[in-house]
Write a structure and sequence with these properties.
1 helix, 59 residues, 97% helix, mainly alpha
Length: 59
């Protein structure tokens, strides 16, 4: 019986460890995706504002 109990304890501990690592990986991937989106958004916004400024200077 102690063999079964120690196996369950080991499985639970492994499950907790895996769960913690998968959550941090997901959070990291989400953060990286959000950062990439924000940088791209800012770049496109700057390009649009530059085009609009050049267009209004031409008129």
């Amino acid at each position: 019986m102690s063999d079964k109990t120690s196996k369950n304890l080991a499985q639970r501990e492994a499950g907790r460890t895996f769960q913690r690592s998968s959550k941090s990986i997901a959070a990291t991937e989400y953060g990286q995706a959000q950062e990439a989106f924000r940088k791209n958004y800012e770049r496109l916004k700057a390009e649009r504002l530059a085009r609009e400024a050049a267009k209004s200077d031409d008129k």
